[in-house]
Amino acid sequence: MLTLKQVCERSGLSMVYVRRCVAQGKLSTTKVEIAKNTFRHEVDEKDYENFVKTRGHNGRADGKSKFILYTKVEDLEKILALVKSGELDVEVNKPKQYKKA
User: How far is the C-alpha of 15 from the C-alpha of 8, rounded, in Å?
Assistant: First the structure.
């Protein structure tokens, strides 16, 4: 059995995220009373392995992290040039252009 702290250490996830997964039923736990009216969640090794396998990385099937980069137009052109040359292996989706108010 693993504590939530051990789950965080093994998976590299934050305690907030792990607790949210427990609350949403994505990670099965057993409540163990450690003192009167004081409980600790424990995770079975099989449940942990299943959680890691089914979770995916950032919820994406391709295992890539998704992030948003806010940049100036000049810097975006430099980033796009790096992608085009193959020096930077990422997918770039350019958003709609917003007009300044």
Answer: 6
